[in-house]
Design a protein that fits this description.
about 65% strand; about 280 residues; mainly beta; elongated; 8-stranded antiparallel barrel; 12 strands; Porin
Length: about 280
C-alpha cells in the first residue's frame, strides 16, 4: 500500500538520464571565427565575407544538439502532503555539436571557383549543478507533479574540437585549400564562465514500489541566464595597413570559439531515479 506524504516527510535518492543540450543565441553577429583573434590578427584583402576567416554558418535548435548525461543525488522536503521543496547535487554535461557543410560559387583569397566549406564546433562543458525547485503534486496519492525554480552551476571542465576547412576547385582543376583543426581542453577555464545560473521547469510522476521505496520519472528544461563567454564580447575590428603595392586589411575578431559571445546554456533532461521515503 502506498504511503501518504505528510508535512515534514523527506524523500532522498538518486537519478540518472540523458541531457540534450544546445546554446541559445549561438549565431555570431559577424561569423568570423577565432583564428582572427587579438592574439593572431589575420591579414585579408577585399571583401571580408570572402576571407578564410569568414564562414556564413547556420545554427539550428535541433540539428546542433549535444547529447550528454545528467546524474546526481537529490532530496525532497514536504511542506504539505502535495507541495514540496526539491534540491540536490548533479553532474551535467552541456554544450553544442555544430556541424555545418556548404557549397557555393565564389572566390576565396583571390581565387574563384566552387567553394566547399566545413565548419564544426563541438563543445563539452561539464558542470556541478544545484537546483532549488518548488514541486506541486496534481493528482491524489502524489503521482503526477509539476515543478519550477532556479539552478546554479559550477564549471569543472571544458573541451573543444574545432574544424575549419575551405576548398576552392577551379574548372582547370587547380585546388586551393585552407585548413584549421584544434582539439584541446581549456584547462584554465579562461574562455567559459565558471558559474552558470538559470531557471528550470519540469514535470514527472512517482510510483511507490513499497511503503518506503519510490520510483521517479521526470523531464525538465533548464534555461541559462549567464553568457558563456568569459573573455571576449564579439569585438570586431578591421584596420587598413599600407603595403608596398597598395593597402591590406588587418582583421581582429574575438568571440566564443567562433560562436556568439552572448550564447547561453539550454538543456533538456530525461531522468529516472529511486528514492527512499523517510516519515517524520
Amino acid at each position: 500500500m502506498a504511503q501518504e506524504k505528510n508535512r515534514g516527510d523527506i524523500v532522498t535518492g538518486f537519478s540518472i538520464g540523458p541531457s540534450f543540450a544546445n546554446f541559445m543565441n549561438s549565431g555570431a553577429p559577424h561569423k568570423i571565427n577565432i583564428f582572427g583573434s587579438d592574439e593572431y590578427p589575420l591579414p585579408i584583402t577585399g571583401d571580408i565575407t570572402n576571407a578564410v576567416a569568414y564562414t556564413d554558418y547556420q545554427t539550428s535548435l535541433f540539428k546542433d544538439i549535444f547529447v550528454g548525461i545528467s546524474v546526481g543525488i537529490q532530496i525532497e522536503y514536504f511542506l504539505t502532503n502535495n507541495l514540496s521543496i526539491h534540491s540536490g547535487i548533479f553532474y551535467e554535461e552541456k554544450g553544442i555539436d555544430l556541424n555545418y557543410y556548404n557549397t557555393r560559387d565564389g572566390y576565396l583569397e583571390g581565387i574563384s571557383g566552387e567553394i566547399s566549406e566545413v565548419y564544426e564546433r563541438n563543445i563539452i562543458n561539464k558542470y556541478v549543478i544545484a537546483p532549488f525547485l518548488l514541486r506541486k503534486y496534481l493528482i491524489e496519492r502524489n503521482k503526477i507533479f509539476v515543478e519550477g525554480g532556479i539552478y546554479t552551476g559550477y564549471l569543472i571542465s571544458s573541451e573543444i574540437t574545432i574544424l575549419d576547412e575551405k576548398t576552392v576547385i577551379r574548372e582547370t582543376g587547380f585546388l586551393f585549400a585552407s585548413y584549421g583543426f584544434d582539439n584541446e581542453k581549456d584547462t584554465e577555464r579562461e574562455f567559459t564562465n565558471r558559474f552558470d545560473l538559470g531557471f528550470v521547469i519540469g514535470t514527472g510522476f512517482i510510483k511507490n514500489i513499497s511503503p518506503e521505496l519510490v520510483f521517479t520519472a521526470e523531464m525538465r528544461i533548464g534555461f541559462g541566464m549567464r553568457k558563456l563567454d568569459a573573455k571576449f564580447n564579439n569585438e570586431y575590428e578591421v584596420t587598413e595597413i599600407p603595403i608596398s603595392s597598395g593597402y591590406n586589411q588587418l582583421l581582429r575578431s574575438t568571440n566564443y570559439y567562433g560562436l556568439n559571445s552572448d550564447s547561453k546554456n539550454l538543456n533538456f533532461v530525461l531522468a529516472i531515479g529511486l528514492g527512499y521515503h523517510i516519515g517524520k
